[in-house]
């Protein structure tokens, strides 16, 4: 069975072609994280690997203590308990050791939180994501691209060899290696924009704009889902993001009626003098601040 499923998965990946290589998706029977595609997700996995042994040691230690107390100090084994209530050394140890453990965890986790929450200033692309009951709206305000992604119907997904409940009818494209600043909001109830391979999970809340960011370091197809219990069709709000080369992304933007100028000029700097002044005012105006 397992081998069959694997062959089917490989075959479906092959059918959809090299550009469609499925990278960020859950696998049958999988129990670990998806393969990371951003530095943030790599750091999250590192932190997880740091935390897991600590949690296991603490849990095993507490379990052993409990068992020891149950066996050694029950009424039958220990009919006349001692009267003392304090032991200075034990109390010092059980105060200091947990503090040291917490300091070690904080030492590792605070930089990670900072990295996740602080949007890099050189973010070159702004993506606005709006949750709706039940579909996602995407917009690149600086490029003039706007689109709506719905769940790909089951028959179509099967016919195309794409994963039902993860594939959408209109995949979103992002360029590889670009820092994408994501503005997340909602039109109705609370949704959440979550893409596991990117290490991104941001609540989409009506009437407010949350921020997050990602920078995908390789090409591939990455799937996510709404991860907030938003209503009856909560399970039918997939996210499909294709990380592609800059040229492919540019072509896609143009094909969707967008203009490329604002992404190209800041990187190049000097060339195209005639075009630069016209584009400068457009970029700050389209960058909302809290
Ligand atoms: Cu939702």
From TrEMBL:
<keyword id="KW-0186">Copper</keyword>
<dbReference type="Pfam" id="PF00116">
    <property type="entry name" value="COX2"/>
</dbReference>
<keyword id="KW-1278">Translocase</keyword>
<feature type="domain" description="Cytochrome oxidase subunit II copper A binding">
    <location>
        <begin position="122"/>
        <end position="255"/>
    </location>
</feature>
<feature type="transmembrane region" description="Helical">
    <location>
        <begin position="92"/>
        <end position="110"/>
    </location>
</feature>
<dbReference type="GO" id="GO:0005507">
    <property type="term" value="F:copper ion binding"/>
</dbReference>
<keyword id="KW-0812">Transmembrane</keyword>
<feature type="compositionally biased region" description="Low complexity">
    <location>
        <begin position="263"/>
        <end position="290"/>
    </location>
</feature>
<dbReference type="InterPro" id="IPR036257">
    <property type="entry name" value="Cyt_c_oxidase_su2_TM_sf"/>
</dbReference>
<dbReference type="InterPro" id="IPR008972">
    <property type="entry name" value="Cupredoxin"/>
</dbReference>
<dbReference type="InterPro" id="IPR014222">
    <property type="entry name" value="Cyt_c_oxidase_su2"/>
</dbReference>
<dbReference type="GO" id="GO:0042773">
    <property type="term" value="P:ATP synthesis coupled electron transport"/>
</dbReference>
<feature type="transmembrane region" description="Helical">
    <location>
        <begin position="50"/>
        <end position="71"/>
    </location>
</feature>
<feature type="signal peptide">
    <location>
        <begin position="1"/>
        <end position="21"/>
    </location>
</feature>
<feature type="region of interest" description="Disordered">
    <location>
        <begin position="262"/>
        <end position="290"/>
    </location>
</feature>
<protein>
    <recommendedName>
        <fullName>Cytochrome c oxidase subunit 2</fullName>
        <ecNumber>7.1.1.9</ecNumber>
    </recommendedName>
</protein>
<feature type="domain" description="Cytochrome oxidase subunit II transmembrane region profile">
    <location>
        <begin position="25"/>
        <end position="120"/>
    </location>
</feature>
<keyword id="KW-0732">Signal</keyword>
<dbReference type="InterPro" id="IPR011759">
    <property type="entry name" value="Cyt_c_oxidase_su2_TM_dom"/>
</dbReference>
<comment type="similarity">
    <text>Belongs to the cytochrome c oxidase subunit 2 family.</text>
</comment>
<keyword id="KW-0249">Electron transport</keyword>
<keyword id="KW-0813">Transport</keyword>
<dbReference type="GO" id="GO:0005886">
    <property type="term" value="C:plasma membrane"/>
</dbReference>
<dbReference type="InterPro" id="IPR001505">
    <property type="entry name" value="Copper_CuA"/>
</dbReference>
<dbReference type="Pfam" id="PF02790">
    <property type="entry name" value="COX2_TM"/>
</dbReference>
<dbReference type="GO" id="GO:0016491">
    <property type="term" value="F:oxidoreductase activity"/>
</dbReference>
<keyword id="KW-1133">Transmembrane helix</keyword>
<dbReference type="GO" id="GO:0004129">
    <property type="term" value="F:cytochrome-c oxidase activity"/>
</dbReference>
<keyword id="KW-0479">Metal-binding</keyword>
<keyword id="KW-0472">Membrane</keyword>
<dbReference type="InterPro" id="IPR002429">
    <property type="entry name" value="CcO_II-like_C"/>
</dbReference>
<keyword id="KW-0679">Respiratory chain</keyword>
<comment type="function">
    <text>Subunits I and II form the functional core of the enzyme complex. Electrons originating in cytochrome c are transferred via heme a and Cu(A) to the binuclear center formed by heme a3 and Cu(B).</text>
</comment>
<dbReference type="InterPro" id="IPR045187">
    <property type="entry name" value="CcO_II"/>
</dbReference>
């Amino acid at each position: 069975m397992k081998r069959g499923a694997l062959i089917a998965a490989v075959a479906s990946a092959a059918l959809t072609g090299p550009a469609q290589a499925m990278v960020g998706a859950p696998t049958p029977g999988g129990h670990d994280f998806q393969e990371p595609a951003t530095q943030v997700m790599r750091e999250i996995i590192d932190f997880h690997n740091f935390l897991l042994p600590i949690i296991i040691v603490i849990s095993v230690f507490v379990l052993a203590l409990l068992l020891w107390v149950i066996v050694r100090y029950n009424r039958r084994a220990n009919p006349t308990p001692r009267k003392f209530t304090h032991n200075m050394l034990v109390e010092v140890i059980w105060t200091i050791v947990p503090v040291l453990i917490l300091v070690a965890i904080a030492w590792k986790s605070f930089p990670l939180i900072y990295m996740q929450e602080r949007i890099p200033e050189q973010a070159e692309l702004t993506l606005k994501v709006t949750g709706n009951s039940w579909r996602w709206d995407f917009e690149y305000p600086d490029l003039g691209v706007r689109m709506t992604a719905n769940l790909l119907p089951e028959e179509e997904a099967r016919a195309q060899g794409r994963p039902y409940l993860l594939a959408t009818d209109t995949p979103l494209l992002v360029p590889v290696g670009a820092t994408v600043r994501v503005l997340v909001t909602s039109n109705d109830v609370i949704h959440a924009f979550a893409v596991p391979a990117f290490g991104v999970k941001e609540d989409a809340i009506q009437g407010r704009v949350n921020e997050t960011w990602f920078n995908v370091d390789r090409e591939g197809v990455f799937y996510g889902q709404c991860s907030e219990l938003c209503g009856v069709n909560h399970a039918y709000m997939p996210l499909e993001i294709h990380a592609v080369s800059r040229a492919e992304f540019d072509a896609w933007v143009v094909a969707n009626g967008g203009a490329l100028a604002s992404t190209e000029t800041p990187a190049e700097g000097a060339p195209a003098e005639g075009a630069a002044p016209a584009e400068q005012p457009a970029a700050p105006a389209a960058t909302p601040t809290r």
